[in-house]
Amino acid sequence: MNIFTAKRIWITGASSGLGLAFVEQLLEQGALVTASGRNCDALLSLYQQYHPRLKVLDGDLTDPLQAVEAARQVTEHWGAIDYLIINAGACDYLPSDSSASAVFEGIARTNLSISRNCLETAIPLLQRGSSPQVLAVLSRYSSLQLFKPNQPETADNSLMKLFEYQRATLATDAIDLTIVAPQRLNDPLVQETVILEYWSAHTAAEVILDHLPARPPHLLLEAMHLNLLWPLPS
User: Fold this and answer.
1) Peptide bond preceding 216 in cis form (omega within 30 of 0)
2) Short-list 152, 212, 218, CA closest to 182
3) Which three-class secondary structure state does DSSP give residue 198?
4) How far is CA 9 from CA 24, 46, 139, 184, in A?
5) Could you tell me if residue 146 is inside a domain?
6) Is residue 150 part of a domain?
7) Which CATH number characterizes residue 105's domain?
8) Domain residue limits at 196
9) Tens of pLDDT, residues 154-188
10) Looking at beta carbons, which pairs linking 152-158 to residues 24 or more positions away fall under 8 Å?
11) What is the average per-residue pLDDT within 100-123?
């Protein structure tokens, strides 16, 4: 039996790119999936094919009340979740005419809000799950520090710090956390530079899911052509 068969999984950022690839591959492997993201033809097509194993939620998860409502619907549908996959690489909510600086700041700020809201609302669902695990996937965009880069990183200005801060809290509930992120060259633990590789959304999702059962605390993902994994507003 596949490791993900009948597993209840909530995926954010699921409209396109890597998030959509997670949805497709997990459905193929027999999972029960909730996909949060702006409604798109691809998700609607998957819903027609995989209903009732796929539930699609369209909402703004930067809004705490909408995040609570999303968790309520997940609870109503599945009762609990075994995996929370936070695909925090880009953002569906930004206007297409945003300047480059506004786009990158918006991605960092938006994913901080979404991740914080989803973790808070999903913990009760994970507590009722089987061997629960959180997978957080960060891009070079979303891992940027907000505000002045010479300020200390905190859970309020750094997505990486937010997840690392939450690791101990999750562990008290026996919830494992795997963070997939680009290499941080200022990290004293980094011994060598990871070479950029070509990843499509499909191949990246496949490799990440293959590693997930081992429950590593960290995985490095350095990718060329980031727009293939996390499409920017167009």
Assistant:
1) no
2) 218
3) strand
4) 12, 15, 21, 29
5) yes
6) yes
7) 3.40.50.720
8) 8-229
9) 999 999 999 999 999 999 999 999 999 998 655 54
10) 156/112, 157/112
11) 90
State the pLDDT at residue 89.
86
Q: Summarize pLDDT for 11-67 with one digit per residue, the tens.
A: 999 999 999 999 999 999 999 999 998 777 899 999 999 999 999 999 899 999 999
Token code pair at residue 179: 């963070």
8 A C-beta contact, residue 33 and residue 54? yes
Please tell me the predicted confidence (pLDDT) of residue 114: 95
Is the residue at 234 inside a domain?
no
Q: How many residues make up the chain in this entry?
A: 234
231 burial level (CB within 10 Å; 0-12, 13-18, 19+): middle
Cβ atoms of 84 and 118 closer than 8 Å? yes
195 CB burial (10 A radius; 0-12, 13-18, 19+): exposed
Quote the number of domains for the chain.
Answer: 1
CA distance 34 to 137: 17
Round to whole Å and give the CA distance between 194 and 67. Answer: 35
| Residues in Cβ contact with 43 at an 8 Å cutoff, skipping those fewer than 6 apart | 14, 15, 20, 23, 35, 37, 56
Which carries the bigger pLDDT value, residue 211 or residue 232? Answer: 211
Look at residue 1 and tell me if it is in a domain: no
Residue that wins the pLDDT comparison between 25 and 101: 25
Cα 67 versus chain centre, distance? 14
pTM strictly above 0.85: yes
